[in-house]
Amino acid sequence: MFKVLSFLSRYLIYTIPVTMVLGFGFGLVAPTGWLKSLIIPLTFLMVYPMMVTLKLGKVLEGGDTKAQVLTQAINFGITPFTAYGLGLFFFPSQPYYAIGLLLAALLPTSGMTISWTGFAGGNLGAAVKMTVIGLILGSLATPLYVQWLMGASVPIDLMAVFLQIVFIVFLPMVAGHFTQNHLLKKYGQKAFQSDWAPRFPPFSTLGVLGIVFVAMALKAQQLVADPGQLLQVVWPLLALYGINYLLSTVVGKLFLPRGDAIALVYGTVMRNLSIALALAMSAFGSAASDAALVITLAYIIQVQSAAWYVRLTDTLFGPKPAPPKPAA
Q1: What is the pLDDT of residues 7-34, one digit of tens each?
Q2: Which residues touch 24 (CB under 8 Å, ≥6 apart)?
Q3: What is the pTM of this model?
Q4: Which residues are within 8 A (CB) of 129 and not within 5 positions of it... i.e. 6 or more apart?
Q5: Which domains, ranges and CATH numbers included, belong to the chain?
Q6: How many CB atoms lie within 10 A of CB 182?
Q7: What is the b/e burial string over 229-253, where b = at least 16 CB atoms within 10 angstroms of the residue's CB?
Q8: Which terminus of the chain has a lower count of CB atoms within 10 Å, N or C?
């Protein structure tokens, strides 16, 4: 079982598109109303495992203040308004598509921020801190941004969105923190890192794939009736990610050393689409599938683009410095 889950996690570049196709096919041939009852358990399965391995104490460590400030300035001062502007332009009469685009932009960083930073030879410590800070700030800011930017277009119950954030993010965070402490006390830091920590992320992937399946199944009949919706949604997502990559690359090259610059790119471009998708599916009633479709397609663009960016890293930032030779 664990080997299967690890395989699904390692090959998200393929498993998410395959899951979308399977969900789409299921939605065409079977009743889908009952799938909505799976959203809450799948949401917990998706978020809780991420929280078990989250290192909250990293927030208190110093040494990369400029990178952290620039990262969150982009995440909350530029990216949400870019997404809002793209939503106005591409979805003037489809506000729930625009909300999906905004949610994808409002929740920065995920576990993949750390992974891709490592693959590209960036500053892993800075990436971990960006992940924790981005998750907390994004969770607190998202209801306010959604109300502020989209409240005139769609009815938004601010308290309901806050409660969903508490249920989706903070309760699993507390549960994950206690689980982590229990395992550390029982088995020690070394055993936790080598034996226990790797076991949790694959279960999160299973939750992600489950939610993607449900989102596509619920949307299948509408997509058959209007297949042009897919292309309509892809273009603003490509624009959002393209702008994010360009901006973060320029800012990183101008203001930060190589390792911090790479962490900044993945700390601003990678979005916590799992939480965004869970929030979309649970907070917006019958129109949730519109917002969820945007976020589901964002998975494909995000994973594919991150993999390609790793290949360009040395060209953009120069090769990783060789470790110093030990003294003779």
Answers
A1: 777 777 788 888 888 988 999 999 888 8
A2: 216, 217, 219, 220, 223
A3: 0.79
A4: 58, 59, 61, 64, 68
A5: 40-187+223-317 (1.20.1530.20)
A6: 12
A7: beeebeebbebbbebbbebbbebbe
A8: C
